[in-house]
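Tutorial handout. Part one gives the primary structure; part two gives the three-dimensional structure as tokens.
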Amino acid sequence: MTTWTVVVAQVAARAYLSFLVTLAVVAVAPAVAGWQEFVVDSASMTPGIEVGDVVVARAMDPDEQVEPGRVFVFADPARPEAPRLLVHRVVERAPSGGWVTKGDANAAPDVEPVPRESFRARARILVPLVGLPSYWWRAGDAVALVAWAGLTFAAVVVLLAVPIAPGGRRRRTTRRALGVLAGAGVVVLLVAVAASASAFAGFTATTRNPGSSWAMSASTQQRYNAAVVDDNPYVYYLLDETGGGAAADASDHGRVGILSDIAGYRAPGALPNNFGYALSLGAGGRIVSGGWSLSDPTTYTLELWFRTTSRAGGKLIGFESGQGDWSVLHDRHVTMRTDGRLVYGDWNAVQVRTITSPTAYNDGRWHHLALTAVASGNQQLSTMYVDGVPVVAGTTTRTGAYSGWWRVGHGKVRTPLGLTTEAGFDGAVDQVAVYRAALSAVRVQAHYAAR
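Part two.
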């Protein structure tokens, strides 16, 4: 090996070890002031916070305010039986109390609002890369861990080497001392980082970065939420509230829903692989979309999950001119008949055209409903999907030209004699979404498959 090769190798080794020790010192030194280090174990905060980065955080005082837009470390409120820490950004105050959090790379907010008492620390310093050995150790990635250890060992060995030169005994001794010191420093500081707490940065939705998807286990991905948000819903209500009269809107539009006369909160959710809850409506419960009224929708998709054993039938979802107990105008609704079959198009009109599912769905199981409607002259071309499959399609009744709000549950319907009455839906509902476009069959199937 030539003298120049040795010199270049030693410069590279010094630079590498200096970089490594500097990062480790920056990560560990704040602990002297009582701060804590957290090694990030997953990728939902990319690109700002990557897997293996160390978040240095200061413990929060009991009366310290939670500021939207900041990154915090908090206990996962969705898993009290198996405690873990999360690193996510606070995005807003939840209508039902607590705080809404979200991973920067996630398509949807976290499903569970975080109560104030769950916040542990506020992120202050981000140290890149230095926690990777800790992450590899905890993840059982022996190949990466051995490769890194080999590179570090080789750097120390190179630093200990002395180029052939006359004399140089003093230089050799100094170089060896520096090499031993650097090696010992790397080991001590990285052991300290490895002993720090682990924090998970993946809570609900899948990451938008395909290269990072490996870091998120299937049990923690909210694939359904991500699929819905990707189709830009007008409103999207997860219905995970603990009580109260407001339903958080998981779309990008902030149309907080109005909950009235709800029979039960926190019922078991509809989605087997996506954490969340459902609402039990009872005979009089309803969910009404918030925000300004919507003028004369003619093309749209209505989507929700429902479950019931009732033989009374009722109104699942529709459009009405009022947000209160009753409305003057009403149409665009899907109802369930007393025999459990679903109907769309049955509202007051001069000429009623309906589509009806061939199968009953009041069997006590969760079912996914999607109704797409496209304007066709003064009527609509409508398709009803149940559990991801189109079950009936056809021309349906013309809709009225008025402004109103979308409604789930108790509202106005048409009687067999053509009169108007009120009806609820004595069952549970979950994951309500409305879109201002007709979803394709492929997208409806994708939603159902993501359950």
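Part three, for discussion. The CA atoms of residues 306 and 429 lie 4 Å apart. Helices lie at 3-28, 132-139, 142-160, 169-194, 223-230, 441-449.
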